[in-house]
Amino acid sequence: MLSRRELRIAAFATAVIAFAATTGSALAQKKYDTGATDTEIKIGNIMPYSGPASAYGVIGKTEEAYFNKINAEGGINGRKITFISYDDAYSPPKAVEQARKLVESDEVLLIFNSLGTPSNSAIEKYMNAKKVPQLFVATGATKWNDPKDFPWTMGWQPSYQSEARIYAKYLIRQKPDAKIAVLYQNDDFGKDYLKGLKDGLGAKTSMITAEESYETSEPAIDGHIVKLKASGADVFVSITTPKFAAQAIKKLAEIEWKPLHIVANVSASVGGVMKPAGFENAQGILSAAYAKDGADPQWDNDPGMKKFYAFLAKYFPEGNKLDGSVVYGYGAAQTMVRVLEMCGDDLTRENIMKQAASLKDFTPDTLLPGIKINTSATNFAPIEQLQMMRFKGEKWDLFGDIISGDLSN
Amino acid sequence: MSAVQEVVTEAPTLDAVPKKAMTLGNGTSLIILALLIIVPLLVKNFIIFQLTMLLIYALAVLALNILTGGSGQFSLGQSAFYAVGAYTSAILMEHADINYALTLPIAGIICFAFGFLFGLPALRLSGVYLALATFALATAMPQLLKLGVFEHWTGGVQGLVVTKPDSPIAALFGHKISQDMWLYYFTLAISIAIYIFSVNLLKSRSGRAFMAIRDNEIAASAMGIDVALYKTLAFGVSAGITGVAGALGAIAVQFVAPDSYTITFAIQLFLGMVVGGVGWLPGSIVGAAFIIFVPNIAEGISKGLSGAVFGVLLFLVIYLVPHGARQVAMVAQNLIGKLKKN
User: What stretches of B126-226 show up as alpha helix (H) in DSSP?
Assistant: First the structure.
């Protein structure tokens, strides 16, 4: 028979062992790579705060504000986010320097939403050699969905090619005998887009009867429009950036050419393109979207957008809700936070890529209803769906189903 | 026009003996060399990478310094020569599998020829008009690189990814040699060779001819100097060195794309030359440090206003030391001289 004292010791010993066993297993679960600790997660970012693309810098600022919000609300599983964002002035060599600074000097866990196709191309090889996640890059190029060769790099927004394929699908279905005239910007954006359009048309590529390209340095594109009209086309696909998209809309009205007009999503901004081009000239234009428009009153009572407006009011009052970049940064940052939450206490770089590649039906507040983020080990393209829309009055009317830009369906 | 010319015409008046003022004393040179050799052994790979870029930009600034400081011609087109060098090296490495070290002389020769040929028509222009012609070259270059005709070779707008060379030796002074460290010492060796070549070039007959043209073209031709030949030669040498720098830059950054070589880069090099001191070759490294590190400092002070902060810093430099690093060096030299006397 054990004495009372012995019993007490035995009980205490059991308790100690049990405690040690549980904390031991808890400790074993916590795994970190450089850049993550019990209290902190370091995230790096590269943005063109200066230089020719500085208008996009607001994305970085929105993301910083969003992470501040997360920190103010207690962080992710108790860890605060430290967001280190550097300027690369849209210059690839500078992006390499900044990426190396982030990884080797600031020792971040990952680089998130670095902006620009040239800058991301420049650091892609380095990031993959170092095995540091290059997550949700802010570019629409198609090349980021390549898990086999670049398992540490992932895109976020729909690629230009998938968007163009959606227009191709629409045209084949709605206007099978169309004669298509294409105006495209002579750079990676324009060429990627044109390829998507042609891939989408497939055997019917001959529907494209005229192609014209322009340089961003051209002051006006009137000459190209007149030429395209002369080709006798009845569909006009405008693969243009905002300034040129607005010029094209105006010119079409001026020369009284009324084809079915499709504008790329990057230039679908109401405030930035449609209004300056004149609402009366923009009626009936088609485009596609994946995010809600902050300028559109139809979302005023949408629960997701209400959260977005509340965030703007409290954490980012200088952010302009009409600016698509603000909506963009919010959605991207929310996806990042979601991935980190899914990682739990296993904050290794490998687990981050694993979790980023297992997003199932995730919907950030700012995406259109029905559009969901899905990734897998073989699919590194988070957003692949868009919805067609038609410009009516002073806003876009969404119509039809959510369409996937995937080639297979 | 007068403002631009002032920089060149005023600069030589600062030093009575231009030949000597072009270089540093032996002691100082050795100290700087020792620092350049030892520092990389003590710092992180990222800093080594920055130091490599520092040397590469210093070479490009040096090349411009030979052209402007030496022969008195302006160029805002150095980014174009740099781009040609970078693309030559990248294309030879990736498409023809040529060893990276061999691509450097080829890049240098191609750029020398390119610069020499460009120098021929440019001869008829002087001062700001020449600067404008080279400006046109710099703005045209990124677009030429994007042309569909060359796309198979240049990779078009997507650019080309370059493989970084491994170190052929395993260790140095007990330190393991990483790719970055190897590339640094490789770059350092080439930089020293080019620096010695440049100093000797400016001390030679050709160098004296350059400076005579810079100081007074008519007097130079009266003395029997073939003005046309030496002016194009200066362009060729400058372009050749810039091309080597560009090739090294492509290897260090591991990526070439048209957007890397815009007019902004040419202006940065010009700025580096002015900050380092026009016509003072050792100033090139100071100028390169300015264009690499000061934007980072400006960003650290204010992210939204980094451009403005950079402008203020630049303004301060120009206002306080209009002759750049050379002026600082001369003041320091005088101080040391006084201390020695005491």
Answer: 128-146, 151-154, 179-203, 205-215, 217-222
* Cβ–Cβ pairs < 8 A, chains A and B: 83
Partner-chain residue, chosen from B50, B259, B303, that has the shortest CB–CB distance to A92: B259
- pLDDT (tens place) for every residue of chain A, 409 residues total: 556 666 666 666 665 555 555 544 444 468 899 999 999 999 999 998 887 777 788 999 999 999 999 999 999 999 999 999 999 888 888 999 999 999 999 999 999 999 988 899 999 999 999 999 999 999 988 889 999 999 999 999 999 998 999 999 999 999 999 999 999 988 788 888 999 999 999 888 899 999 998 887 777 889 999 999 999 999 999 999 888 899 999 999 999 999 999 999 988 888 778 888 999 999 999 999 999 988 778 888 899 999 999 999 999 999 888 788 899 999 999 999 999 999 999 999 999 999 999 999 999 999 999 999 999 999 999 998 999 999 998 888 999 888 887 654 4
d(CA B33, CA B35): 5
Burial per residue of B117-133, b for 16 or more beta-carbon CB atoms within 10 angstroms, e otherwise? ebbeebbeebebebbeb
How far does the CA of residue A131 sit from the closest CA of chain B (Å)?
Answer: 16
Q: Helix, strand or coil for residue A138?
A: strand
Domain assignments of chain B as residue spans, ordered by start: 2-341
Separation in Å, CA of A44 to nearest CA in chain B: 15
B157 to A91: CB separation less than 8 angstroms, yes or no: no
> Could you say which of 1.20.1420, 3.40.50, 1.10.3470, 1.10.150 is the CATH number of the domain covering B2-341?
1.10.3470
Residue of B nearest to A117 (CA): B158
Contact B249 A50 (CB under 8 A): no
The answer to whether residue B157 neighbours chain A at the CB level (below 8 Å) is yes
Domains of chain A, earliest start first:
40-158+298-378 (3.40.50.2300), 160-289+389-404 (3.40.50.2300)
In this prediction the ipTM stands at 0.78
From the list A121, A186, A191, which residue is nearest B159 (CB)? A121
The two three-digit tokens of residue A88, written as one number:
């690369």
> If we measure between CA atoms, which residue out of B82, B118, B281, B122 comes closest to residue B199?
B281
